[in-house]
Amino acid sequence: MFLAQQERPSRTVALRVIHGSVLSQRTLRRFEQEAEVLARLHHPGIAQVYQVGTYATPQGELHYIAMEYVEGERLDAFVARRGPRADIAVACRHIPGGEALLDQGVLVLLPDRACLS
Predict the structure, then answer these.
(1) Where are the alpha helices (DSSP H) in 1-111?
(2) Residue 107 has what pLDDT?
(3) What are the chain's domains?
(4) Sequence-distant contacts of 46-54: CB under 8 A, at least 24 apart
(5) Of 58, 65, 79, 83, whose CA is between 20 and 30 Å from 8?
């Protein structure tokens, strides 16, 4: 996950990038599914997807998801602070929009991609 500046409209975005040369077909499908699921979820606590696509570089294609940047504590930091007994389901209840993610059946939550704000 990277912090980037979108030119038009001018705004700071969170940019999730995967280089095509390291992608298996399965990983690419999961990346595309993640983009679809996130784009369909509408909740004030869930970052809005702005754009999904590919970008050609001399080293190959980059697949990306550009989304709303939300400042806050990363979920993995929250779990580390709470200790080894921290329960991800409990932590999800503290994430704005976490309830909506669980209600929509989003079962895979990667701690380095979720923030508590």
Answers:
(1) 25-40, 75-82, 88-94, 98-103
(2) 42
(3) 1-70 (3.30.200.20), 72-117 (no CATH)
(4) 46/96, 46/97, 46/100, 46/101, 47/14, 50/6, 50/13, 54/20
(5) 58
